User: What shape does this take?
Amino acid sequence: MILGVGLDVVEVAGFEAQLADPASRFSEGTFTAGERQAAASRASGSPGRHLAARFAAKEAFIKAWSSANAGRAPALAAADLREIEVVQDPFGRPSIALHGRVAEAVALLGPVQIHASLSHDGGLAVAVVVLERQQEILDQESWT
Assistant: This one.
């Protein structure tokens, strides 16, 4: 069962300008060291572009989580975006790992699977996140 869906779009040039501002601590306050290192090591040579997609994924996750809690008070007053980490498997496929208070709060929904898709084209980065009740996934696997 789908619990929530989130979508976010980020304009890359403006995002890169924010990252480049020497007075800003936005990057350190938003991304884990692993996310920053992964973006810096991409062959494109454009870490800001990859961080923009990861930021979109974090925002899309918040939207999906919010819609999964429709009709209830938010589980947290504010989320530390570093507790929502975009990670990749060995083949480069993105997923979201939750940590700390965000992980604890999401666990209140029961077992969920988080689906994430990130993309960038031209000057935009976009992400879609779907929260799905995990029990249905297990039931579906039993017939395949």
DSSP finds six helices and five strands in the chain.
